[in-house]
Structure formats: C-alpha cells, structure tokens
C-alpha cells in the first residue's frame, strides 16, 4: 500500500512562491527563515543574523523570509497581513526586498504593542478591528504607509487580496513541517542544528573559502 503524507494532500498550491526574496533568486546557496512578527526570538534573529547576512550576501545567496504566524500568538496573522499591505505600498517606490525590510523592521521594532502572550496582554480589551486601527495602522504610518491606504487595504482583516496569500504561506510552511519560530532551512534542508547557528556559522556557510 502507498500512502501520501496528509500534509502534501492538504496544502493548496500558492499562486506564487510565497516568501519574500531578500537576496538573489536561484543563487547556489540559500537561507530560508520562517518567522513570526509577535515572536521575540524571531525579532532577534532578524536583527542580528538575517539582516546582516542580507547586507553581506544579497548578491550571492538566496535569502527568503516566510511569514509564519503562530496560532497561539493571537495578533500574528494580522501582523503578517499588515506586513503584506505595507510591503505592497512601499514597493511602489523602492525595490521589493527593501520594502519588505522596512515593513519587517517596523513590525518587529514595535512588537511589544501587539504581543498577545505578554502579561498583561496589551491588546486584551481590544477587538480585532481595534488592534488593526489603533496599533497596526500606527506602525504602518511610522514606516511611511499612509493610514488611509493601510485601512482601506486591511479593513477588518478579511481582504482576500491579503488574506489568501498570508493563509497560503502559513499552510505552505506547515506542510513542510514548520511549527515554531524562528525556523531556518539551509539549502532547503531543515535541521534542529540550525537553531544554534550564529552569524559566524551562517557566514561560513554562505561564503565558504572555496567560493571567495
Ligand atoms: C482590560 O479590562 C480589565 C477589566 O476592566 C482591566 O482590569 C484590565 O486592566 C484591562 N487591560 C488592559 C490591558 O487594558
Ligand atoms: C483590498 O485591498 C485593495 C488594495 O488596497 C483595495 O483596493 C480593495 O478595495 C480592498 N478590498 C476590500 C474588499 O476591502
Ligand atoms: C559554529 O561556529 C563555531 C565557532 O565559530 C564552531 O565551533 C562551530 O563548529 C560552528 N558550528 C557549525 C555547525 O558549523
């Protein structure tokens, strides 16, 4: 008997590759990061590992960011949608990778405003719409995205233009077995060992002596 793993059967085929390429697509080495805007470890890895690597290796490595909102971080799905809305707007006037980086910096930088797992939870008494208009619209404005555009695009969190790709990116990661953030893949391979890789380890991997 032959069984397909359930996850393969359950994942929809996304309309396009679901992550944000911050380096060079098709480069011989790659780093993939699955991260959650409400996760402090994700914020730290973004700031201290991924951004410096993008800076150094964007011409020679593929570095892809996948938004992977964990279900028990209640505002994370909307944070991921907000990141898409912001990136869409900003990419009208700058390269997509720079637009995404600007959005991610803003969301990670102000994550304590929407991290529902804090005690006390700062959003405990807000509705979903309230979190969007009082917190995410503010963060978007700080990143240079007009509040009107942001609110028209986000609505109350159910604009299919943003909802569907955000959902499909999550399903895509889940089908690959991702269940925590940050999760890394090196040249497409997931390994627990990558959790402890430092900037120096990634630098050695992306830029081995044989390739310089
Ligand atoms: C939420 O409302 C409760 C009940 O009024 C109050 O005790 C609590 O401090 C509020 N929490 C926040 C974060 O505003
Ligand atoms: C979804 O966002 C787009 C882009 O900003 C906007 O033009 C459209 O009106 C929004 N749709 C809904 C149903 O809110
Ligand atoms: C990571 O770097 C440290 C020191 O720079 C080294 O000892 C270790 O072996 C490296 N780990 C991997 C998996 O390359």
Kindly describe this structure.
The protein has 212 residues and is α+β, with helices and mostly antiparallel strands. The protein has helices at residues 6-10, 40-57, 76-90, 96-109, 128-142, 147-154, 160-175, 199-206, and strands spanning 20-21, 29-35, 61-67, 183-186, 189-190. Strands 1-3-2-4-5 form a 5-stranded mixed β-sheet, with helices on both faces. α2 links the parallel β2 (29-35) and β3 (61-67). α2 (40-57) runs antiparallel to α4 (96-109), α2 (40-57) packs parallel to α8 and α5 (128-142) packs antiparallel against α6 (147-154). The protein starts with 5 loop residues before the first helix and ends in a 6-residue tail after the last helix. 37% of the residues are buried. The mean pLDDT is 93. Bound molecules: 2-acetamido-2-deoxy-beta-D-glucopyranose (3 copies).
Largest sheet: 5 strands, mixed
Structural class: alpha+beta
Q: Give the overall pLDDT as a whole number.
A: 93
Q: Specify the oligomeric state.
A: single chain
Count of DSSP E strands? 5
Beta percentage is: 5-15%
Distance between the termini: 49 Å
Shape: globular
What small molecules does this complex bind? 2-acetamido-2-deoxy-beta-D-glucopyranose
Strand order in the sheet with the most strands: 1-3-2-4-5
Helix percentage range = 40-55%
- Spans of at least 5 consecutive residues with low confidence: none
Query: Over the alpha carbons, how many angstroms does the gyration radius reach?
Result: 17 Å
Q: Tell me the number of helical segments per DSSP (H or I, 4 or more residues long).
A: 8
Order of helices and strands: HEEHEHHHHHEEH
């Amino acid at each position: 008997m032959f069984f397909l793993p359930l996850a393969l059967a359950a994942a929809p085929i996304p309309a396009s590759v679901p992550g944000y390429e911050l380096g060079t697509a098709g480069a011989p080495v790659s780093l993939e990061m699955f991260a959650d805007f409400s996760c402090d470890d994700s914020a730290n890895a973004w700031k201290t590992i991924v951004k410096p690597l993008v800076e150094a290796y964007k011409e020679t490595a593929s570095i892809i960011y996948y938004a992977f909102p964990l279900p028990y971080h209640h505002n994370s799905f909307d944070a991921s949608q907000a990141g898409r809305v912001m990136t869409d707007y900003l990419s009208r006037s700058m390269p997509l990778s720079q637009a995404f980086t600007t959005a991610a910096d803003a969301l990670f930088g102000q994550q304590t405003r929407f991290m529902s797992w804090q005690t006390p939870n700062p959003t405990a008494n807000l509705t979903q719409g309230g979190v969007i208009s009082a917190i995410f619209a503010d963060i978007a404005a700080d990143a240079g995205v007009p509040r009107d555009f942001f609110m028209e695009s986000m609505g109350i969190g159910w604009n299919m233009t943003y909802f569907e790709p955000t959902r499909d990116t999550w399903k895509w990661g889940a089908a690959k077995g991702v269940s925590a953030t940050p999760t890394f893949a090196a040249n497409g391979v997931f390994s627990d060992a990558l959790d402890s890789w430092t900037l120096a380890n990634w630098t050695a991997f992306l830029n081995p002596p044989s390739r310089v």
